[in-house]
């Protein structure tokens, strides 16, 4: 019995959008939905901002949005960047926890900016699990919110605690 605790901050900045494009993993054209998750990658003096899109099977596609310069002296820009950098910390891989003997993974939501469904958030942040897998686990009670069984479309709020039982 090993319990691991994580802290997440959720942000939503833009309206939901879908893009129809070829999915390499599906091998055909698929409808990609904006997960509202943004990722920053630093490359030399540039910071690339990506929107993470997913097809129905859960394959990801990073759409490039903006390029920032890291030497900006505008304080507000720096603050925004630091705050948004936390988004990338949410991304987790479940396999190392399973292999390491973790039986329960607890995710505490420190802040929630916007409206988020538990199934969408977990499908976005957990790399191995598709939305279908997440939905099944929620229905089986293997994923709970505040110690209770919930529906896949349950909304998340700051202070909520997500429990994942392996
Ligand atoms: Zn796909």
From TrEMBL:
Keywords for this protein: RNA-binding
SUPFAM superfamilies: Alpha-L RNA-binding motif (SSF55174)
Superkingdom per UniProt: Bacteria
Family annotation (PROSITE patterns): S4
InterPro entries in the record: S4_RNA-bd_sf
Protein name, entry field: Cytoplasmic protein
Lineage of source species: Bacteria, Bacillati, Bacillota, Bacilli, Bacillales
């Amino acid at each position: 019995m090993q319990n691991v605790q994580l802290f997440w901050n959720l942000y939503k900045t833009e309206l939901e959008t879908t893009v129809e494009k070829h999915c390499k993993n599906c091998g055909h054209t698929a409808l990609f939905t904006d997960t509202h998750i943004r990722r920053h990658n630093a490359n030399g003096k540039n910071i690339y901002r990506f929107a993470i899109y997913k097809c129905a099977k859960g394959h990801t596609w990073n759409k490039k949005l903006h390029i920032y310069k890291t030497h900006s002296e505008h304080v507000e820009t720096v603050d925004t960047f630091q705050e948004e950098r936390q988004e990338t910390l949410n991304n987790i891989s479940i396999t190392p926890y399973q292999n390491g003997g973790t039986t329960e993974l607890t995710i505490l939501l420190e802040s929630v900016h916007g409206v988020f469904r538990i199934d969408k958030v977990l499908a976005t942040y957990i790399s191995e699990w598709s939305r279908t897998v997440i939905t099944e686990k929620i229905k089986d009670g293997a994923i709970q919110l505040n110690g209770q069984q919930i529906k896949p479309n349950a909304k998340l709020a700051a202070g909520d605690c997500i429990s994942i039982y392996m």
